[in-house]
Amino acid sequence: MSHGLAQVPRTRMSDAWSHEEVEAAVADYFDMLAKELCGVAFNKAEHNRRLRALLQGRRPKGSVERKHQNISAILLELGFPYINGYKPLGNYQQRLRTVVEERLTAAHDLNQTVAQMVRAPEADSAAATNRLPDLVTAPARDQKESRVHEGGRAERVHGFRNYLEIEARNQSLGLAGETMILNFEHERLWRAGQRRLAERLEHVSKTRGDYLGYDIHSFEEDGRDRLIEVKTTRFGPLTPFFVSRNELEVSLERRDEYHLYRLFHFREEPKLFTLGGAISGCCELEPVSYSVLPK
Asked: Helix (H, G, I), strand (E, B), or coil: what is residue 275?
């Protein structure tokens, strides 16, 4: 793998990464990201080793990993997907953000790949019918990352197109995710011996419309209502998702019944974590658009 850089000159060891070191780290990350988005296998440990060799051993393995996590955090802030396994980590150098923005602006092929991914229809509806997601624990995160965004059509963040919000409006993907969760809930109730409840499941976003503030009317094993709002992404578990004011209000009014189901890695091996109660109580909200009237 070529980073497009000569070996970084050896200088006095410092906690702050030099511009050349940052350039090398960002180039390496973007190389891995392009491969991951295209489904090309790569070895993170080998990339780490090669990058450290390029840096002439000036940075230990953990330092390189943290720098890659910083890059993940910046990409999420710019509305761009991050590499699976490099959990977003804040408190980064401004120099790093500048280099990431410059490289992302120039990465035309990578932008085109992501643009196609987020708009692509979920072609194989049978896949959502025949497979179920793996239920996992909700991921812990750095407090500065993975916010939930309230609002509509803010496609640009800090001058960049917000591909994550574009994906969130992909109706085909959203419907496929809802179908998967409908089947997941049917299986959950069936295995609990509540077959009559399983047969009463309702995909309300289809049967009644999307004004209710949730997508699926399910049940607890004791027969109580479980109201489910489904959010689906083809990217990682800390990818921000977007909610409407109506969803926020319904989750607050019916907090004892409300559940948010987050589906991620939908394209490959779908996984799921759930959050119960008011969205404002279990998530950090950041407004990204506003309804405006003249004064």
From this structure: strand
Distances (CA, A) of 92 to 20, 100, 164, 238: 16, 11, 22, 18
Q: What share of the chain is helix, strand, coil (3-state, %, to 5)?
A: 45, 15, 45
Residue 10 DSSP label: P
| Residue 88 and residue 82 in contact, taking contact as beta carbons nearer than 8 Å | yes
What is the full per-residue pLDDT of the chain (295 aa) written as tens digits?
A: 444 445 555 544 457 899 999 999 999 999 999 999 999 999 999 999 999 999 998 899 999 999 999 999 999 999 999 999 999 998 898 999 999 999 999 999 999 999 999 999 987 655 565 789 999 999 886 654 434 445 444 334 456 889 999 999 999 999 999 999 999 999 999 999 999 999 999 999 999 998 999 999 999 999 999 999 999 999 999 999 999 999 999 999 999 999 999 999 998 889 999 999 999 999 989 888 778 889 8
